[in-house]
Amino acid sequence: MTPSRVRVRVGFLMGVLVLALARPRPWSLALGAVLALGGEVVRLWASGHIEKTRRLATGGPYAHTRNPLYVGSALMAAGIAAAAASPWAVLAVIAYFAAFYPSVIREEAAFLRGRFPEEYEAWAREVPVFLPRATPGGPRASRFDWARVRANREWRTALALLLVAAFLAARSVLG
């Protein structure tokens, strides 16, 4: 089984663990909301550019980082961990990302390099793997389209974020 497939399954278990460890407070919910919403905005922006396996997305957030969906996921996870207000939750999130994301990013890069060799090399020369550059770089060929957001089913991530936020808010109130 590839790291990508394992990552998703373990991610669900990690989410349950983080929620079980959560001891949210009003201040942690506010901080977490800012980070998590920022992550979802990045994911929405990226989802509107990507046509998985059909074209190489190089515009929008893909002109700042080659992995904006993962950057958005990392921000969302950091937000959820911050909202949980548990050092154990933070450690669990860090361990999860350290265990899976480097290999998943390498796996995806190899696939894209093989599928779009010339385009990928030109893009990779200008755009960093993960930490975003301040100004856009590379070919910037893709354009945002809400139809792609729907096709990429980003609504599922947004819905999950709302459910997690509701759970953490309820846990904050109910103790």
What this model shows, in words?
It is a single chain. By secondary structure, the protein is an all-alpha fold. It has one domain: Four Helix Bundle (Hemerythrin (Met), subunit A) (Up-down Bundle), CATH 1.20.120. It contains 7 helices and no strands. It has helices spanning 3-21, 26-47, 68-84, 87-115, 117-126, 146-151, 155-174. Helix 3 packs antiparallel against helix 4 and helix 4 packs across helix 5 (117-126). It is elongated.
SS element count, helices: 7
Q: Give the strand content.
A: under 5%
Helix content: over 70%
Highest CATH level, the class? Mainly Alpha
Q: Give the number of DSSP strands.
A: 0
The total tally of domains equals: 1
Radius of gyration, whole Å: 17 Å
What is the mean predicted local confidence, pLDDT? 94
**CA distance, first residue to last residue:** 39 Å
Q: What structural class is derived from the secondary structure elements?
A: mainly alpha
Relevant terms:
175 residues, mainly alpha, Four Helix Bundle (Hemerythrin (Met), subunit A), elongated
